[in-house]
Every structure is written in C-alpha cells, then in structure tokens.
Amino acid sequence: MAAWGERLAGVRGVLLDISGVLYDSGEGGGKVIAGSVEAVARLKRSGLKVRFCTNESQKSRKHLVGELRHLGFDISESEVTAPPPAACRILKERGLRPHLLVHDEVRSEFDQIDTSNPNCVVIADAGENFSYQNMNKAFQVLMGLENPVLLSLGMGRYYMVTSGLMLDVGGYTKALEYACGIEAEVVGKPSPGFFKSALQEMGVEAHQAVMIGDDIVGDVGGAQRCGMRALQVRTGKFSVEPSRAQMSHQTKIDPLRSALRPDVLRLSAKPAPLPRALGEDVWKKCQGIHFSLDLSGALTLEVKEVINKDSQ
Description:
Helix content: 25-40%
Mean pLDDT: 80
Oligomer: single chain
C-alpha cells in the first residue's frame, strides 16, 4: 500500500487542536475523546508533519503535555504551539512589562519576564482569578498608560470540559476593551500571526496544511483566513455551537476518530457565510471542495474545484 503522504495532493502537514478534539479537560486529568489516541498515532505513522495548535492558557505546556501523555497520546512540548510562549516572545521583542491577569498554573511560563512597573496587560483564561478586584486592577493599569497595550491569549467565548461549558477569556477581554476604549492584540487562534508561527515551526506553507478543530471561528475560520484548509470535528464545543446553524446543510462534519477510520469518508464542504458580526473576511468563499479520506491503505485529499470569489 502506498504511504499516506504519497496520496496527499500537496498536503504535507496537519495542525490539530487539543481541547474538544483530542480530549475534554476536567478533574482528574480530563477524558479522552474516543479514538483520538489512535488517530494521532495513525497520523504520525503516515509521514505527515503533525503539530498541536491550542489556545490553552490555564496550564503550562509542561502540565498540558503531561496530562496528554498520561492519557496515552504521543506528544512532546516541542510539538505544541500555545499562547503563553508566543506572548513571552512578543513581550521580549517589544520591551513590554506585563501586569498578568492569568491562571496561577500558567504564571511559570512568564518567570523570565520583567513584570515590574507594568506598561501593558496580559489577560488569559484566569479561571477563578477573574474576580472584580483583579479585573479592576487590570483596568486601572491600562487606564494609567499613555499608550495602553492589552494582549489577550486567545479570544474564545467558551470551551467544553467534562463537567460542561466554561466561559473563556474572550468575554473578559471584551469587557476591558469596552471599558478602556481600546482593542486587544490577540495572541492565539484565530490570529493569523499565531497560525503562521505554527506553520513556520512545522516547516510547511499554508496551502500545504490542514487544520482540524472543534471551533468554527477560532479553528476553521482562522485557518482559512491564513490560506489553509480546515475541518471541524463533531466533538467538543461543536455539540452546543450555535454557529453550526450558519453552515450549509451540504457540510458533513465528523469526529477525529470517524474521519480517520478504515473506510472512506466523503466530505463536500461548502461553507456558509459567517455572520456579519464576526466579519466576512474570516471566510474563504470556497465551493465544491471534495475530500476523500481512506485510511484502509492511504489518506487522499482531492480538491476538485475551489472558487474564491474575492480573487475574481
């Protein structure tokens, strides 16, 4: 049988979201999404480059990878693109000293960053640290700066854990934007710079990569905006995602396990326009994209026809 890579029409790499695709986080280390351990192993055996692209900002990469390895995943810290390390690079490059509104578990990621006399605010999924006092302190720091800078580690609305939905950092970031009259710089999905960083670390071009995630905006929309192809799995937040109603009935979406099972899944994707409030530029207006995934011997991906109306 031919190797997967020989049948992949120019695709050289796969970016995988973590939460909602590989597992649902929660007490006791979280719960594996059925079949995802085997799916990751199968992808790695294929010869494709695989990288994990996450907005996780409640755990350090070391903690996150430790949880995933305990659950059976073949993964290392060097394979994970996450917001905290990306934010640290930005802080160092621009000489920024942050006031940190982050979860206690992720503070260690900023150990080498000068936090004295803050000239910016970094906000992440702080969990229980999102108190009025802490939000107000971040507000005061920003309002006291001549040129306030707010870095938001992701912009998600919510995510799924084993106990249900959890409010994400996006709502709190929006509150500070509104109160201070500023716009945050997003470090994480769906920021184009974050995806480009993941692609650079993986060593492939955007048109050579596929993003697989559970978030129609952060994963799928963000990846498409960068020129990648993207698939949404029917796990994680998809099960309660209102925006799925905006998608065409012709779009078939399957869990990672189903997409990588030993039979043929045919997926005809014709994305519906994103709601105006989320911005038309997030979507590539593609029609007639045909994917064929056959893992009995090989994985094939064929784009029959792509029509980008914006380029015509």
